[in-house]
Amino acid sequence: MPLGHIMRLDLERIALEYVVPCLHDIGFCYLDNFLGEVVGDCVLERVKRMHRDGELADGQLAGPSRGVAKRHLRGDQIKWIGGTEEGCEAINFLLTLIDRLVMYCGSRLGKYYVKERSKAMIACYPGNGTGYVRHVDNPNGDGRCITCIYYLNKNWDSKLHGGILRIFPEGKSYVADVEPIFDRLLFFWSDRRNPHEVQPSYATRYAMTVWYFDAEERAEAKKKFRSLTDARKREAPLNED
């Protein structure tokens, strides 16, 4: 049987028998050993090279402080990539597999209809005790419905290195701690159901995140943004006096 066919069947089974039920039951799930050692290493080496070459910039805050870097609130350094850049073949392969997984979830994601996603955000916490305070990825309906994070940290010991992603599931009496270990792929709902934080990291911590958009909510968010932008343009001459 061709390898591609086996991969398709496995991804479809994982999507339908694990990812979809977990998202509906508890709001998150993760898969370990997703790419395997060889391909995972290729992704890690490319991310390390970006970091070494100074390609990462301080992460910015959204909301009222949009575009502002405040390291005590968010201490990561990031780079946005499409996956088709030179030398990013392994990252592109990873993104293709994640896309297929989400595609196989299909109409089983409740009210959501996914047609597109964001670029990939490469993120590094440099190990100086910084993290990311508790927040919600999509608190105001910007279209993001699923957050997907791929971790790249070998020999990670959370007792020594920290860096746990802690999820505070809405309405639950428990928290969920996810260690950012190498070749782990995490999914969770992006809205207010899953406030989460990155606890302080005391070793270099790498991850790659993509967000999948619900088509209807994304279109509505773009429409609102265009209306707001147009309104500001109309007001601009009045503010020049």
TrEMBL record:
Subcellular location: Nucleus
Domain Fe2OG dioxygenase per the UniProt entry, residue ranges: 116-214
Molecular-function GO terms, alphabetical: ferrous iron binding; hypoxia-inducible factor-proline dioxygenase activity; L-ascorbic acid binding
Major site of localization recorded for this protein: nucleus
Cofactor(s) demanded: L-ascorbate
Domain of life: Eukaryota
InterPro entries: HIF_prolyl_hydroxylases, Oxoglu/Fe-dep_dioxygenase_dom, Pro_4_hyd_alph, Pro_4_hyd_alph_FE2OG_OXY
Membrane-traversing stretches: none
Keywords of this entry: Dioxygenase, Iron, Metal-binding, Nucleus, Oxidoreductase, Vitamin C
BP terms from Gene Ontology: cellular response to hypoxia
Pfam family, one: 2OG-FeII_Oxy_3
Signal sequence annotation: none
Keyword Oxidoreductase: yes
EC code: 1.14.11.29
GO cellular component: cytoplasm; nucleus
Keyword Transmembrane helix attributed: no
Catalytic activity reported: L-prolyl-[hypoxia-inducible factor alpha subunit] + 2-oxoglutarate + O2 = trans-4-hydroxy-L-prolyl-[hypoxia-inducible factor alpha subunit] + succinate + CO2
Protein name listed in UniProt: hypoxia-inducible factor-proline dioxygenase
Organism of this sequence: Sakesphorus luctuosus
